[in-house]
Amino acid sequence: MNKPDDHCRADIADRLTLFYKKYHIADIVYCIDLADHKAWFSHYSSKTIVHQKIAGRKHIYASSANALTYWRCWGRRWIVKDRNFEKVLENSLHIWEYDCDMKDKSSPLIDMIKFGYRHRITFSIPCPFSPELVARFSLLIDSDMVKNELLNNRYTLVAELEYLHMKIARVHGKEINPLVDFNIVKPLSRNILSLLSDGYSRAEIAESCHLTERGIDYHIDVLKKTLAARNIANLIKLANTHYLI
Fold this sequence. Notes:
Layout: H1 4-23, E1 27-34, H2 37-41, H3 47-55, E2 61-62, H4 65-77, H5 84-90, E3 93-95, H6 108-114, E4 119-126, E5 133-141, H7 144-152, H8 154-172, H9 178-181, H10 187-197, H11 202-209, H12 213-227, H13 232-241
Domain HTH luxR-type: 185-239
Organism: Shewanella benthica KT99
GO biological process, one term: regulation of DNA-templated transcription
């Protein structure tokens, strides 16, 4: 029996595949990300820890197994050293550039070529369901001609990526929310939020989650602190704003 995540992964991969075939792109890697990394990760003293959390994300989706393996390899080997990544977080469009000797057997460019790609362009698309989130589409390209065509038609491309993200996020957005993926909000806490928003009492939620009412209060207090909520009503409003429920 397929798990819910298997269906989600297959559905997103199918949608990405239809898109890359239309534009003759080699592959696409996609995720929903936090719009402001600094706001959520400022308490970490080391960027390395943050980068490792990003590299270890579960909800990264790709149009092929090769593309996903490439992304995992890049994250494991280069995310800390690759200056392109910080530029992705700062710009709505970033063309990944590497100034390195092709004879160097160990570089992010050499790794990319080994996986069959020559260029990487990342578009960061605002999420229509939450100002706190963005979609990141990394287009993996195997020819200079396709790269140039994409850049020449970037405005049309952005419009289509916006539509593609809207379709994915409408169906799977809450399931692949980065706040849960980064473990900033625990899956159980999100479930409690959902039950709260549906009007269930603390006693009913405790029974449903196999916790005590004190345990429910603990999760609510942590959520209020995490989302900077003043009270339960404000917490539910902010949970909606962050597309958690």
